[in-house]
């Protein structure tokens, strides 16, 4: 197992280097907050966007799928860029660039303009989470990596919570534009802080794979895809993204229309998804010890399935609370099992490997949201929720079986 070495930050002793590492990962966690918040903030806004631009709910959802598609596509660029020029630096400047997309979305005068800037925002926000994970894997030894990744994960989780909650809150208080002004502010603050950290610690990317700096983009992707296990993980996470978020993107709209509740309440209920994820992050060691990777994959798939059944059969909007919680804890059980394996797919090209993983995940999300837009417009919400209710436990069971086969082959 390749052991990562923390970067030489210029600190005089190990304790100082640890403090620098803690600060650097904290800032990456804040970047993950902004990125995931931008991804989810549109979910509760779909009814207002539909009304404001005189389009259907399915058409309004292109603001979600367009962001996800751009986010996934640009991973193919950011992974090799991070490996070549330094992951921390690429993240820093991408966060500043994300201000342009947020500003354009807030000022959009028609839906085509809004969609363009949402796609731009997805393209720039894409750098944050996958490259952060790869940077952490570069700089933290494997035996310490799991709790450190859980610490980083908290920012992403709060981004999901805030995106859902603030999206609904701004929709009711200021209208949908207020949500994107908030994202402009968030990207500006985190971008400035990250660039300041790069200036403060010029060796922040010293653990990057300098020995492979001469490789081209296609060579890096070929090195990752040459592994059969990597191909299994990539296909699996694509299907997972399609099933999980292909349905969850429409839950606030469903709750708003089906139970006639406010967008603030609908977004707040779905913020419980983040609380479920936070519960996993706080007790990750216990879950891993008790269930193991195979158990986590199975439990995650069935917990996600249960969440969609809650939404389908809910006689009252309060049922969305356990539904969203099950979705959150189940998602992080299943996704983190994929994610942990992804960080070791190609250690010599970790930025490219993790970015390719994220790319397939968001391609899956975009495809799932687009598919369910058609399902909802022609059949209804029940079928749109039934598809992931069946698909996710199937994915969990198959992945668990493959993990078991891999473990036996390794022995």
Brief summary:
Helices cover 82% and strands 0% of the residues. It is an all-alpha fold and 411 residues long.
| Corresponding CATH architecture | Up-down Bundle
- Choose one word for the global shape: globular
Which range does the strand content fall in? under 5%
Low-confidence stretches: none
Average pLDDT: 86
At the fourth level of CATH, the homologous superfamily is: MFS general substrate transporter like domains
Distance between the termini: 15 Å
Order of helices and strands: HHHHHHHHHHHHHHHHHH
Count up the helices.
18
Number of domain modules: 1
Largest sheet: none
Please give the number of β-strands. Answer: 0
Q: How does this model look, in words?
A:
- There is one protein chain.
- The chain is built from 18 helices and no strands.
- The radius of gyration is 20 Å and the shape is globular.
- It starts with 13 loop residues before the first helix and ends with a helix.
- The protein has a single domain, classed as Growth Hormone, Chain: A.
- Helix 8 (142-173) packs antiparallel against helix 9, helix 8 (142-173) packs antiparallel against helix 14 and helix 11 (228-248) packs antiparallel against helix 18 (381-410).
- It is mainly alpha-helical and 411 residues long.
- Helix content is 82%, strand content 0%.
- The longest helix is centred in the middle third of the chain and has 32 residues, at 142-173.
- The chain has helices spanning 14-40, 46-52, 57-60, 62-85, 87-106, 111-125, 128-139, 142-173, 176-200, 217-225, 228-248, 251-259, 263-270, 272-282, 284-313, 320-342, 350-378, 381-410.
């Amino acid at each position: 197992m390749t052991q990562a070495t923390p970067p030489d930050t210029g600190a005089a002793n190990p304790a100082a280097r640890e403090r620098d590492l803690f600060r650097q990962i904290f800032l990456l966690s804040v970047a993950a907050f902004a990125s995931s918040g931008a991804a989810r903030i549109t979910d509760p806004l779909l009814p207002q966007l539909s009304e404001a631009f005189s389009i259907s709910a399915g058409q309004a959802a292109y603001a979600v799928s367009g962001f996800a598609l751009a986010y996934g596509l640009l991973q193919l660029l950011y992974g090799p860029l991070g490996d070549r020029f330094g992951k921390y630096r690429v993240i820093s400047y991408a966060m500043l660039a994300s201000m342009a997309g947020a500003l354009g979305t807030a000022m959009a005068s028609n839906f085509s303009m809004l969609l363009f800037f949402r796609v731009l925002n997805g393209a720039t926000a894409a750098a944050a989470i996958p490259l952060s994970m790869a940077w952490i894997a570069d700089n933290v030894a494997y035996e310490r990596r799991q709790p450190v990744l859980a610490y980083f994960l908290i920012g992403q989780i709060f981004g999901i919570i805030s995106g859902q909650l603030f999206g609904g809150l701004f929709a009711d208080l200021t209208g949908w534009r207020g949500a994107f002004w908030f994202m402009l502010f968030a990207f500006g603050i985190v971008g400035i802080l990250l660039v300041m950290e790069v200036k403060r610690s010029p060796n922040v990317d010293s653990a990057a794979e300098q020995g492979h700096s001469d490789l081209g983009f296609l060579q890096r992707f070929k090195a990752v895809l040459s592994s059969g296990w990597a191909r299994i993980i990539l296909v699996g996470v694509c299907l997972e993204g399609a099933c999980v978020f292909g349905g969850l993107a429409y839950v606030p709209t469903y709750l708003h229309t089906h139970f006639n509740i406010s967008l603030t309440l609908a977004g707040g209920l779905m913020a419980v998804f983040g609380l479920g994820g936070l519960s996993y992050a706080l007790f990750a060691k216990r879950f891993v010890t008790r269930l193991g990777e195979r158990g986590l994959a199975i439990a995650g798939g069935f917990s996600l399935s249960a969440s969609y059944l809650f939404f389908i059969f809910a006689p009252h909007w309060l049922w969305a609370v356990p539904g969203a919680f099950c979705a959150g804890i189940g998602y992080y059980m299943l996704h983190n099992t994929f994610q942990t394996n992804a960080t070791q797919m190609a250690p010599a090209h970790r930025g490219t490997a993790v970015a390719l993983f994220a790319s397939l995940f968001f391609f899956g999300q975009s495809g799932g949201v687009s598919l369910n837009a058609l399902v909802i417009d022609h059949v209804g919400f029940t079928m749109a929720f039934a598809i992931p209710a069946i698909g996710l436990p199937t994915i969990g069971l198959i992945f668990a079986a493959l993990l078991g086969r891999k473990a036996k082959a390794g022995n």
